[in-house]
Amino acid sequence: MLGKKLSQNFAISLVSMAFGILSSVFIARIGGPAILGNISLAMSFQVLIKSVFTHTVNSAHLKMYNDDPNTGLKNYLAVFFFYNVITSLLVLAFVAWNQMSHNGTFTELQITLIVIFILQDYLMTPLYLYATDQTAKLNIVRANMVDFYAQLLINIAKIAAVVLGQSEIGIAWYIMAACGLSSIYPLLGLMRLNFGSFSLAVVKKYIRYSLSISTSTIAYGLLLSFDKVLLGIFGVPAEQLGYYNVGNRLGLMVLTLGTSVGGIFLSVFSKNISDNLHEKTMEQLGNYEHIISIIFLPAVLVATLFGEELITLVFGARYVQAYPVLIFSLLFAFTKTLTIPYQNYLFANNRLKEFRRTSILFAIAIVVFTLLLAYLDWFHSLTVSVAFGLFLACLFERILFTQAARVVDPQINFFSTQSPSSSSAA
Q1: Quick one: pLDDT at residue 199?
Q2: Could you tell me what percent of the chain has a pLDDT over 70?
Q3: DSSP 8-class letter at 319
Q4: 314 Cβ partners below 8 Å, 6+ apart?
Q5: Which of 305, 335, 340, 349 has its CB surrounded by the most CB atoms within 10 Å?
Q6: DSSP code per residue over 41-71
Q7: Per-residue pLDDT tens for 90-105?
Q8: Taking Cα atoms as reference points, which of 153, 156, 162, 154 lies closest to residue 27?
Q9: Bridge partner list, 417
Q10: Which UniProt keywords apply (predicted)?
Q11: Nearest to 398, CA basis, from 191, 204, 160, 219
Q12: Over 143-170, what HEC string results?
């Protein structure tokens, strides 16, 4: 059953990745590296905010529903609204800080883009609520199809905007329209669901769970966005950000394969634990790592051997300097994807202290490794050095989470998890 859900999930994610790459190709080839760089910088702020707030409350709902399937949506919606208010205050504070900074750390264009992209996320609230609720109920295909259609509309909007000659601002408003359209069906779906009654105690429980998992989502947000923000602070031109984004985005798109199954594993592991099916969990972990290795390792090998030709063919010859970034991005995506189930394993087993500690250390590692590598500039290129720093941080995270999970079950180790069936066969 899990294998079927994972297969469907991977298929949907692969198609979604293809459309994402296609829209990036249009922006890169027609718009140019400067437009691509400014858009990627704004999106990095959107991803960071989404990871800190949206993903935390979504993960909390997955846990709450598995603890009590009668949990309604009213309390989930209340917490979501509360976090949106906090997000708005943080964005206003950021804009004020940039205005008071000497000459402004970011340009007026970049600030405008950042605000627009944050507003886009508000429009997507019905989609986040509906997709997460369907994931909690293990209606995985339905949840993924809703997200798939949203991403399809957004990517079509990007392509249309750049083909019609729109600037960064125009592209951002086209995406805004796509976000609004993609939220209509989830909104209608939500109206048919049971919202239940409001309970302050349940809201506090939501917040407590979200705070417990926030360390992980903050770390994940830093992984996706801190590199671009750091390069912006270091004064890297928008064109160089565009080149970096080409290599980095290909790795991040592959990483979506891992994150797309994260919700599945949290729900499945929670159910296994409640049913006392520990050996089944070990088997699922082992099978997952085996499948991911089969998919990823050939991709990394092909990218290493033919990466420059691939970039030239897809994006154009001027983007070939993104090749080293592409290699390191694929390596950190592979390492991170292998680690994701162990985060959910600890959380599902209520090892919240270990979960928070390892996530905090990973977040610190992202900041320290990228700053250190940027300062040392080993590769005589800030973009390549920062990409290598992310890879080192993901290796460090793998060590942290596998060691923490090994305390729960000694079968777990850094390189792979041995499933009970394989150990008995030996």
Answers
A1: 77
A2: 82
A3: G
A4: 21, 25
A5: 340
A6: HHHHHHHHHIIIIIHHHHHHHHHHHHH-TT-
A7: 878 877 887 777 655 7
A8: 162
A9: 412
A10: Cell membrane, Membrane, Transmembrane, Transmembrane helix
A11: 219
A12: HHHHHHHHHHHHHHHHHHHHHCCCCHHH
pLDDT at 132: 82
CA-to-CA distance for 358 and 361, rounded, in angstroms? 5
- What is the pTM assigned to this prediction? 0.75
Residue 352 backbone phi and psi in degrees, to 5: -70, -35
Q: Which two tokens stand for residue 240?
A: 């160089």
Q: Name the token pair of 201.
A: 């105690």
- What phi, psi does 351 have (nearest 5°)? -90, 60
Residue in 331, 122, 124, 191 with CA at minimum distance from that of residue 247: 331
Q: Copy the structure tokens of residue 216.
A: 């992980």
Cα–Cα distance for residue pair 220/252, rounded to 1 Å: 11
Roughly what angle, to the nearest 10 degrees, separates helices 2-26 and 262-274?
Answer: 160
Tokens (6 digits) for 289: 């790592």
∠ CA 198-49-371, nearest 5°, is: 145
What's the token pair of residue 28?
């890169």
Q: To which residue do tokens 């290599």 refer? A: 247
